[in-house]
Amino acid sequence: MVTSLPNLLTYSRIAAIPVLIALFYVPAPWAAWTCLVIYAAAAITDYLDGKLARAWNETSPIGRLLDPIADKMLVTAVLFMLAAFDRLQGWSVIPAVVILLREVLISGLREFLAGMNARGLPVTALAKWKTTIQMLAIGFLIVGDTGTRAFDGKLPVTEIGIAGIWVAAVLTLVTGWSYLREGVRQAITEDPRSPPPAKAAGTFG
């Protein structure tokens, strides 16, 4: 159903994006913390929508379409804003570029394999760890120096976020290579006449 709870969670993730962008332009500590809360809530819906859709047997074509799109829109928008407001700068921009390029690669592979009626690319445990670390790192970077001041300078929030985004980028390269190999293998070996597999909503990873 278009208005099922899993789909509504996906819609909310898309709706949160312009709010997050607007909050970056508000030069006040409350805006940074509010941005973090909204981002965290959106990240949680990324986990819940697919899980609920499978548990309640409410998977739908619109959910399968919008869920990965919402994920990539959210991450792309926030990474761009972090770079625009110098939370990511210099060498620290490189992991963000790696993460975004990997998303383009995986999206292209999944679309190609779907057209072949291939099995697709199942989300691996390492990819889930990558996503978790990436989400946490982005959260630290959103609050940045505001978070450091809140802890009286005792917690290097921005530095933790930058370290986390580098770790996520390394895992991005590893999982991206794994997905690429699997995609090429399926493209070579799959029978295009076979029926498409049943796919569940949710692409956490």
Automatic annotation (TrEMBL):
**Entry coiled-coil feature ranges:** none
Which Pfam families has this protein been placed in? CDP-OH_P_transf (PF01066)
Give the way it sits in the membrane. Answer: Multi-pass membrane protein
Reaction equation(s) it catalyzes: a CDP-1,2-diacyl-sn-glycerol + sn-glycerol 3-phosphate = a 1,2-diacyl-sn-glycero-3-phospho-(1'-sn-glycero-3'-phosphate) + CMP + H(+)
Q: Which domain of life is it from?
A: Bacteria
Q: Which GO terms describe its biological process?
A: glycerophospholipid biosynthetic process
**Matches recorded under NCBIfam families:** pgsA
Q: What is this protein called?
A: CDP-diacylglycerol--glycerol-3-phosphate 3-phosphatidyltransferase
